Amino acid sequence: MSRPYVIDELISAKAIAARIEELCREIRATFPADERLVVVGLLRGSFVFIADLVRELSDRDVEVDFIEASSYGNSMESSREVRILKDLRGEIEGRNVLVVEDIVDTGYTLSHVIHLLESRHPKRLKTVALLDKPSRREVDFKADWTGFEIPDEFVVGYGIDYAQCNRNLPCIGKVRFTD
Ligand code: PRP
Ligand code: MN
Ligand code: MG
């Protein structure tokens, strides 16, 4: 059983949607319009963000793929040991790739995945993270695009879980324990 908690809204669904529009303008300017873009979501946390992002890019030729990496399990602390639980279905060699992540915390997950994907020699590899907690960083890593920088709060919603709960909240909220 987890400790009792309530969720306070930190970033509204409306603010997220507006930021995604801005991010997609920059993403469009970076990737050639006449080349297919492989959009790779990191399961499970990115599933909501990638769904909104690819629909905002509906004017582009987009292929969607997923990779699953996990470092947290059900705990609130990173294990610092990133495991690839599911690899991409498609090849990325010579292709334009955008990796989509919900949050960069210590940086272990995304830096590990980027390192792995770089070794497959994509033509261009960029990363977008909806949230960034720079105060928690343990490895030198920064996404090419960040939606929002946030303070060191435990956040949930919009794909992000606490012990597998609250991924289906439409906004980003912070967990406040009530015990
Ligand atoms: C969470 C989150 C990021 C990662 C960020 O995933 O979704 O992928 O941790 O933390 P880091 O920068 O410290 O590595 P988690 O391992 O909980 O798996 P999930 O996406 O399936 O919830
Ligand atoms: Mn994740
Ligand atoms: Mg998680």
The distinct ligands, each listed once, are: 1-O-pyrophosphono-5-O-phosphono-alpha-D-ribofuranose, manganese (II) ion, magnesium ion
Domain tally? 1
The CATH class is Alpha Beta
Detail the poorly predicted runs. Answer: none
The CATH architecture category equals 3-Layer(aba) Sandwich
For the report, how would you describe the main beta sheet? 6 strands, mixed
Approximately what portion of the residues adopt beta-strand conformation?
25-35%
Helix content: 10-25%
Supply database-style keywords.
single chain; about 180 residues; alpha/beta; Rossmann fold; 6-stranded mixed sheet; 3-stranded antiparallel sheet; about 20% helix; about 30% strand; globular; binds 1-O-pyrophosphono-5-O-phosphono-alpha-D-ribofuranose; binds manganese (II) ion; binds magnesium ion; HGPRT; transferase; glycosyltransferase; guanine phosphoribosyltransferase activity
Please specify the SSE layout and strand pairing.
Blueprint: E1 5-11, H1 13-30, E2 37-43, H2 47-56, E3 62-70, E4 83-86, E5 96-104, H3 108-118, E6 124-132, E7 145-149, E8 155-156, E9 172-177
Parallel strand pairs: 2-3, 2-5, 5-6, 6-7
Antiparallel strand pairs: 1-9, 3-4, 8-9
The structure holds 1-O-pyrophosphono-5-O-phosphono-alpha-D-ribofuranose, manganese (II) ion (MN) and magnesium ion (MG).
Magnesium ion binds next to loops.
Explain what the structure shows.
- With 179 residues, the protein is α/β, with parallel strands linked by helices.
- The protein has a single domain, classed as 3-Layer(aba) Sandwich (Rossmann fold).
- It has helices spanning 13-30, 47-56, 108-118; strands spanning 5-11, 37-43, 62-70, 83-86, 96-104, 124-132, 145-149, 155-156, 172-177.
- A six-stranded mixed sheet has the order 4-3-2-5-6-7, sandwiched between helices. A three-stranded antiparallel sheet has the order 1-9-8.
- Bound molecules: 1-O-pyrophosphono-5-O-phosphono-alpha-D-ribofuranose, manganese (II) ion and magnesium ion.
- Manganese (II) ion is lined by residues 42, 45, 102, 109.
